[in-house]
Amino acid sequence: MSTLPPQQTFQTMLQTLRSRCGLHATLGNTPALNDILTEANDYVYEQLDDGLPMTSIITLAANASEYPWDSDEAEPIARGSVQTVWIEQGDSERVPLPQGINHAMRADQSLRAIPQRYDSRFVDGIFTLEVWPIPDKTYRVFIDHNRVLTRFTQPTDKPSCPARLVLGYAIALGKAHYGKADADTAGQSFKTLLYKAKVAQKENRRYLPPTACEPGRPRVVATANGFRQVG
Question: Using an 8 Å Cβ cutoff, are 71 and 56 in contact?
Fold first, then answer.
């Protein structure tokens, strides 16, 4: 049985946008709000995307094998852009997780250990990150991937960047559109959020140099200057 947490979608964010703009649940120009939310998604994506791979973290919990393709910071991860998946081992090492989980592996629901493999699985209408074996405790998974601009116009669509930033910009636009007195305040709040996101993006950027080790068996260790891939 899936116990995945609810995800932010176009529909849920539209409801939040309407509320934050002080509009009645059934009043207000819906097409205008739709356009504002889509524009906000595109704008934030353009502000954050620099064409370089990024690393996102998903924290695994004990006794749970499936997770949304969203980082701990609610950053959506496009499955098709995933390059490498690593799992933290101890305090200073990461090891790669190969992709592929078969039915025989899934059949043993009693096994608990540090995950050794991952896969993408379709569950309850959405794709999820699946790990095997089922975690015996908390672990952090590091995912190297690219930011991808996806459709954001339909009720179940997910934003292409952090929902809080998309909503922040959409709220500022919405308040300005409807002539709300606090539109400028909302705009300044969004600018602060965006600035912090850009700073964090630069600080979290990791460069993994080429390795001479055997293909499929690289390791990443912590050093004084960050993580480094070694043979």
Answer: yes
